Amino acid sequence: MTDAGHVLVLAGRFDPTCDLVVEELNRRAVPVFRADLAEFPLRLTLAASLSKGRWNGTLANGRRTLDLASVRSVYYRRPTRPKFPEGMSPEACKTAETEARWGFGGLLSALPCRWLPPPGKAADAEYKPLQLRVAAEAGLSVPRTLITNDPEAAREFADLIGGPLVYKPFFHVRGTVGGQAVAVYANVVEPDDLPHPDIATTAHLFQEWVPKAHEVRLTVVGRRIFAAEIHTDSDAGRIDWRSDYDSHTYRICEPPPDVEAGALRILDSLGLPYGAFDFVVTPEGEWRFLEVNPSGQYGFVQQATGLPITAAICDYLEGTGQ
Q1: Do 23 and 90 fall into the same domain?
Q2: Which of 122, 147, 244, 247 has its CB 3.0 to 4.6 Å from that of 117, i.e. a possible disulfide?
Q3: 176 has a pLDDT exceeding 90
């Protein structure tokens, strides 16, 4: 890794969070090469060869050319999938995408540089069952949780809890219905609603409902920790704050030392340099872990609080941060 090399940014074309990082790197006069995997292979050309144990070559987009040997770090910010020529059969596209993943993606992963985050480890970390186990092992308080496709098991879990449950999707569920953007957020399930036959159709995640004084978005970059309380004044926002950003107010806060230590242990266990953690803080002041996103948004917190998260990310990509 060189001290004055490029930061390779892999992101979708429209990504305001990524824009913050690119703008700050430009302000620091750090050379940046931004690309999206959707540009490959039609608008992004790769040529690399192995010599003396090192990959050498170029990545070019018709406007600029990147010397792969100059890459000091990679900011992997949710790039979109490769696009192939119109007229290719579905079978050919499937094969081409597989080859792009293992060829292009494999070459990038072989570059001797730091990643934020490493895509393989980030993909593994998206598994909520893994997150919850690692969080418990790290000493954090985790809500009682059930994963099932058995409606009767869900009812028995509700009886054990003795109160309402929260249903959460395992992954982001977004799409369009009737031309309108829709998303599935956490929902409260009352014990009287169980058992429900739809539970048998796939895996479902249920957790005990945790009373909330407020929630906290805790963002870790390397070893630096930034935390902000999220207060909402709407019913939907109190169940899942992501469903009603307009209802938010924010306040910078200091996490308890055991929570800070637990968050760092989680990232160490998952092999990640970055994580956007969500916690519930109960009326009694207990911090309960909900989840960690290995490439989570942070711009809305920075904008509201002034926390220097972008600067910390750029420090890490430059190689000057922890």
Answers
A1: yes
A2: 122
A3: no
pLDDT at 29 over 90: yes
204 lies in the same domain as 219: no
How many Å apart are CA 318 and CA 5, to the nearest integer? 9
pTM (predicted TM-score): 0.89
Neighbours of 202 (CB within 10 A): 8
Q: Are residues 149 and 220 in the same domain?
A: no
- Backbone φ and ψ of 9, nearest 5°: -105, 120
Report the pLDDT value the prediction gives residue 178, as an integer from 0 to 100. Answer: 64
Range of the domain at 187: 144-208
Are 234 and 202 found together in one domain?
Answer: no
Does 39 reside within a domain?
A: yes
Q: What is the 3-state secondary structure (H, E, C) of the chain?
A: CCCCCEEEEEECCCCHHHHHHHHHHHHCCCCEEEECHHHCECCCEEEEEEECCEEEEEEECCCCEEEHHHEEEEEEECCCCCECCCCCCHHHHHHHHHHHHHHHHHHHHCCCCEEECCHHHHHHHCCHHHHHHHHHHCCCECCCEEEECCHHHHHHHHHHHCCCEEEECCCCCEEEECCEEEECCCEEECHHHCCCHHHHHCCEEEEECCCCCEEEEEEEECCEEEEEEEEECCHHHHHCHHHCHHHEEEEECCCCHHHHHHHHHHHHHHCCCEEEEEEEECCCCCEEEEEEECCCCCHHHHHHHCCCHHHHHHHHHHCCCC
Q: Phi, psi at residue 230, to the nearest 5°?
A: -120, 115
Q: Are residues 186 and 246 in the same domain?
A: no
Total domain count for the chain? Answer: 3
